[in-house]
Amino acid sequence: MRGWHKEAEKQWDERAEWWHQSSEEMWERGSRKTIIPFVTTYMPKEGYIADIGCGDGYGSYKLCQQGYRVIGLDLSSEMIELAKNRRTHEHLHFQQADIMNLPFPDETFTGAMIINCFEWTERPLAALEEVRRVLKANAYVCVGILGPTAAPRVNSYRRLYDEAVICNTMMPWEFERLATENGFTVVDGEGVYKREIDNSIIRHLPTELKQAVSFMWLFMLQKR
User: Fold this and answer.
1) What DSSP designation does 105 have?
2) Which pairs with CB-CB distance under 8 Å and at least 24 residues apart come from 40-45?
3) CATH code of the domain in which 189 resides
4) How far apart are CA 16 and CA 55, in angstroms?
5) Using CA atoms in the order 54, 9, 147, 20, what is the torsion angle rounded to 10 degrees?
6) d(CA 163, CA 19)
7) Mean pLDDT of successive 10-residue segments in the chain (224 residues)?
8) Number of domains in the chain
9) How far apart are CA 25 and CA 173, in angstroms?
10) Please, what is the angle between helix 77-86 and helix 2-28, to 10°?
11) Interatomic CA distance for residues 180 and 202, integer angstroms
12) Rounded CA gap, 128 and 2, in Å?
């Protein structure tokens, strides 16, 4: 596990500037534009929210704009430096941290946002258990899991050649089952789709087919 996460930290350090160039577009007009409205529908603004896997902090910043007190956490020190340098507010802070070992006492947070982070963990169940540990009872957590059409699996393809990779291939329906079997209730979910997908057709599909063509699936979970 240590080798996996050290390599993930290194690779995301190297990608930090590239990510930063497109993060505002993603959160304002792109694939992440529906996340904050989804969060605000369920998550009360009192308390303390952890944005785990925050990248350069733009999503954390948008949460703060909505009235949340937020700490953004990321494995990459380069991402955290970008976040600290360019996003400032008295209710917004950033800290380098690994989802596998969060530096907070039990039941610290009243909510969490975790977008495209579990895919980069070697042991998703251990990561989920660590998240559950730092959440208060009945806390909400918004989780985004990349779907089949996101093509994130280019990062894990080389496993077919028995090469070590640092991106797992967990699908939304797998994460949903993992969460419900380990202390969470699924409160809601919605898909993010590529432009080519006809939304008038999507809304009539059962959930498993909606997930199967999704770019990303958003879960709203509640800690039991």
Assistant:
1) -
2) 40/66, 41/188, 41/220, 42/140, 42/142, 42/187, 42/188, 42/220, 43/68, 43/110, 43/111, 43/140, 43/142, 44/110, 44/111
3) 3.40.50.150
4) 8
5) 50
6) 25
7) 84 95 96 97 95 97 96 98 90 97 98 97 97 98 96 84 91 97 98 92 94 97 97
8) 1
9) 28
10) 30
11) 25
12) 17
Q: The domain containing residue 79 runs over which residues? A: 2-223
Encoded tokens for 17: 């500037």
- Rounded to whole angstroms, the Cα distance separating 148 from 218 reads 14
Residue 28 neighbours by CB under 8 Å, 6+ apart = none
d(CA 180, CA 224): 9
Tokens representing 69?
């007190």
Give 184's strand partners: 223
What is the edge-to-edge ordering of all strands in the sheet holding 92-96? 92-96, 70-74, 49-52, 109-115, 135-146, 216-223, 184-192
The pLDDT value given to residue 2: 59
